[in-house]
Amino acid sequence: MSYTVTIQPSGKTITVNADETILTAALRQHAVLAYNCRNGLCGTCKNKLLNGSVSYDQAELKGLSDADREQGLILCCQAKPNEDVVIEAELIDAVSDIDIRTVPCRVASMKQLAHDVMQLQLKLPEGMGLIFLPGQYINFLLSNGEERSFSIASAAADNEMIELHIRHVPGGLFTDHVFNNMQEKDMLRFRGPLGTFFLRQELTGPIIFMAGGTGFAPIKSILQQMFSQPQQRDIFFYWGVRAQQDLYLHDLVTQRHQQFDRFHYIPVLSEPMDKDNWQGRCGWVHDAVIEDHPDLSDFSVYASGPPPMILAAKPAFSAIGLQADHMFYDSFEFSHEV
Ligand SMILES: Cc1cc2nc3c(=O)[nH]c(=O)nc-3n(C[C@H](O)[C@H](O)[C@H](O)COP(=O)(O)OP(=O)(O)OC[C@H]3O[C@@H](n4cnc5c(N)ncnc54)[C@H](O)[C@@H]3O)c2cc1C
């Protein structure tokens, strides 16, 4: 049994097979809707149901509140049609032609950048470079069938060597393995590229990038793309971490700040240590953005990292004028039901 989903206003139709979610079916048919975690948590794939009905495997979905349900919103990464349906959703053309592939890779190098951050360089087979947009992520395929998501930190041009920044989650299945057992030359498999967090070229105003911890990874990839061309606009990078030791590529970002007049770097510490003798900004990173830019109506904001940072920033930024279609986020949700 399959159903047809019509996506308005484009009028594009897709076929959703039995037990398939709308998002999975859409991606299979190269109709890309905005999405991020694919676990029903982040809410990026929330869209309006115009006609028909859908159901979910789970009764409660963190990314879909009662108020959302009352407004007729659905979470496309979890929703399965009960009949032919019509939804209102933007199609993200920029990634629709990029194939999502399963790729083998070798750990080419491992470098500990901070006490809890490992930089992995993954070598892909010759001629099998990954075509991706800076900002996208990959999912490692683990032997128990689970997947783990990590954002690509390297430039898209160097597509046979993929850089990742992996934060150690003590007790975490995959990141414990990375920190305790992984060796150079180990083989891994991943699926990708995934996600719709990438630079919107059509928005030409000033940009604020905001990262929490390893949320710097996708932003580093996007910045590398931007620095390869002359920039006519201001670019602000706010990096929120606990203490100075967590600014794991501080020297690299400082260098870029010195090289590019219009690139502004603002590290923000939430719990500086005494030994830091920190003279810079303190507090929550999104508060620092608001202090410096009390009116965000001309800006685009790209935020990536811990879900609480993004949850706090979304309403706070919209209250000071940020337009909903100028905010893009990569929420590092960590449920691994796929
Ligand atoms: C789109 C996306 C991109 C991501 N990109 C990156 C990235 O570039 N770098 C990076 O370091 N992380 C990133 N993450 C987060 C990363 O996927 C998780 O931290 C990782 O899956 C943890 O795997 P694990 O097997 O070690 O832990 P698990 O075995 O999955 O979890 C062990 C325990 O720790 C909790 N937990 C897991 N992850 C976290 C976390 N991040 N914070 C707090 N508690 C956690 C779990 O709920 C569980 O209780 C990203 C997540 C998403 C959804």
Describe the structure.
The protein has 338 residues and is of the alpha/beta class. It folds into 3 domains: 3-95, Beta-grasp domain (Ubiquitin-like (UB roll)), CATH 3.10.20.30; 101-194, Elongation Factor Tu (Ef-tu), domain 3 (Beta Barrel); 207-331, Rossmann fold, CATH 3.40.50.80. It has 7 helices and 19 strands. The protein has helices at 22-28, 66-70, 173-180, 216-227, 250-259, 285-292, 307-319; strands at residues 3-8, 12-16, 46-51, 54-55, 73-75, 80-81, 85-88, 101-114, 117-123, 137-141, 147-151, 161-167, 187-194, 207-212, 235-241, 263-269, 281-282, 300-305, 327-331. The strands form 4 sheets. Strands 11-10-13-8-9-12 form a 6-stranded antiparallel β-sheet. The protein has a 6-stranded parallel β-sheet with strand order 17-16-15-14-18-19, with helices on both faces. Strands 2-1-7-3-5 form a 5-stranded mixed β-sheet. α6 (285-292) packs parallel to α7 (307-319). It is globular, with a radius of gyration of 20 Å. The mean pLDDT is 94. Bound molecules: flavin-adenine dinucleotide. Flavin-adenine dinucleotide is lined by residues 36-37, 137, 148-151, 165-167, 169, 171-175, 195, 214, 217, 330, 332-334, 336. Flavin-adenine dinucleotide (FAD) binds at residues 36-37, 137, 148-151, 165-167, 169, 171-175, 195, 214, 217, 330, 332-334, 336.
